[in-house]
Amino acid sequence: MKGIKNISFLIIFLITSSISAQVTFQTKVSKKKLGLNERLRVDFEMNKDGDNFNPPSFENFRIVGGPSTSVSNSWINGKRSFSKTYSYFLTPKRLGKFKINPATIEIDGEIYKSQVVQILVTKAVQKPKDGNNADYIVSNNIHLVAEVSKGSPYLNEAITVVYKLYVSPNTGVSNWREIENPKYDGFWSQNIDIKGLKILNGKYKGEDYRYVVLRKTVLYPQKTGKLDIEPLVLEVSIDVPTNRRDIFGGRIMTTMQKTITAGRRSIDVKPLPEENKPTDFTGAVGAFDFKLMISKSNLNANESLQAKIEVSGKGNLKLIELPKLKVPSSLEIYEPEHSESVRTNLGGMQGRVSDTYTIVPQYKGKYPLPTVSFSYFDPKTETYKRISSGEKIINVIEGPINGADNTDLSNANPNKQRVIMSNDQFAFIKTNANLISKTPNDFFKSKLFWSSLLLPLLAIPLAIVYRRKREERALDIAGNKTRKADRLARKYLGEAKKALGEKEAFYVALEKALHNYLKGKLSIETSELSKDHIKSLLAERQVNAATIKVFDALLENCELARYTPITNVTMQQDYDKASETISLIDKEIR
Question: What pLDDT was estimated at residue 336?
């Protein structure tokens, strides 16, 4: 009996030991229900150390903090207790019910997954009224505002959106960055460069504030009805007091990251009135002047002149269609050369656009250029207006007379003499060519003869091979995408190099080059070009972590640099880094 008891005790001890040694890996959240303006803490906790931790993608959430790692080691009654935690801080992007998908970790050669957690995101909750709370400080002392010049414009009428960050005098904001750019679907848009951010004093809801103008954008609505301007979203670093004090009794501050948004703005676009709309109206909206100018009115046949149709003033100049110039059939006219000299400020587009035609008369006579008219809608007076150029006369003084086509019959001469052809008219044509021909014996059985005979036969298998290669290449969809992306990357890198010194054009081209390179190398689509996904794929392909970090920094520079002051030296450095990093990835990628 005693032996049986000992065996039973041993079995119980082994079972208990195996249970205590069991690996656990689980997901813990700070709350399962939160408001749209609240934060969520997610902890991935394990009781045994592991490698190759891989977090979920956190769809529908934005990472505002983490990952941070904490390790706990303790001995209680001779037993070791171990805990390792990866922590993330998230903010929801929208309302709804969402999943926190499993994370994975490798422990002792086995892959473990944490469980799925459901999160319910409700409407924004009321902010706590704690002066030391970061949410309270943001809601009461920091405001991101999108100021729209006009909420109900006409179709193609300019409006402006100015984004301002207001901060109360006693609130510390050390930094901010854009994490979502505003979208202008249904608008033609152009950003206005801001040279240096200036801190200004102003009023917000009747109270004194400091503010910075972050963005200025001019919009021209391209369709009628309700159009939404998607919001600008910032991550702001704010100084929040803690419960700790320094040796002098002063409150110790800590820096926290908070997300703020300007909110969505709706624009109600009115259609242009149908009443009294001119038949030649093509969509010009603004206040314009119109001219038809010719470089000269008196010339000889086969000489050229320029006729310029020009619209100047203030309005949607880059979007208008200029009227066409029509001329008599006896005048030869060439396709116009289009020219634009337009600047954009908070008032919209200003300047001039023109089409310059080259005209060459063929015959003597007087030729009218018919009146050209230009119509536009003036939003200030809410009326249509038309400007006409008036008729221009081209007087061809010298040249042959074409009675059938001459538009000025008064100049026809009934006593004109016939043109008599001279016998020397074609004297420049050589009548004695002195041609030398080879006899057939010189060619037959010569090297040229055998080459001409055999080369077509040899070309047949080469043509078959070439055709098969072309078919194989056409069927290689992935390869074709890669080659196309490589070509586009080289093209945009070249454009970026040409645009050095022009900040916005340079960074747009550089960003396109980097994205097209990734699409080709990683065989991904545009929709998959998120930063986290790119870093994950590059890491999987064994690209060095330092190279991935430089590439990620370049993409971030492309997003931010268009809205912050940048020197030519910085642009050159970013271009050199892009070329060098692409070369490094080519060498390292597997």
Answer: 92
CA 271 from chain center: how many Å? 29
pLDDT, tens only, 90-130: 888 888 899 889 999 988 888 998 999 999 998 877 654 44
Nearest to 488 by CA among 511, 512, 466, 523: 512
Q: Which two tokens stand for residue 139?
A: 């809601």
Residue 127 φ/ψ region, left for φ over 0, alpha for ψ in the -120 to 50 degree band, beta for the rest: beta
**The predicted structure's pLDDT at residue 309:** 95
Peptide bond into 440 cis (omega under 30): no
Backbone angles phi, psi at 67, to 5 degrees: -80, 140
Torsion of CA 138, 139, 140, 145, to 10 degrees: 90
Q: How far is 179 from 416, CA to CA, in rounded Å?
A: 82
Q: Strand 33-35 relative to strand 117-122: parallel, antiparallel, unpaired?
A: parallel
pLDDT at 544: 86
- Residue numbers in the chain where pLDDT is lower than 50: 2, 5, 9, 11-20, 128-131, 404-429, 438
CATH of domain 21-122: 2.60.40.740
| CB 506 within 8 Å of CB 566 | no
Statement: the pTM of the whole predicted model exceeds 0.90: no
> Where are the strands (E) in 109-197, listed by range?
110-113, 117-122, 142-148, 159-167, 173-180, 187-191
Domain at 477-588: CATH code: 1.20.120.330
- Which strands, in side-by-side order, build the sheet including 25-29? 25-29, 40-46, 79-92, 61-76
278 vs 167: CA distance, rounded Å: 50
What are the DSSP E strand ranges found in 30-171?
33-35, 40-46, 51-54, 61-76, 79-92, 96-100, 104-107, 110-113, 117-122, 142-148, 159-167
Contact in structure between 107 and 48 (CB atoms under 8 Å): yes
**DSSP type of residue 528:** G
pLDDT at 21 (0 to 100): 56
Q: Which helix (H) or strand (E) holds 254?
A: strand 251-261
For the chain, domain boundaries? 21-122, 134-269, 290-409, 477-588
CATH architecture of 134-269: Sandwich (2.60)
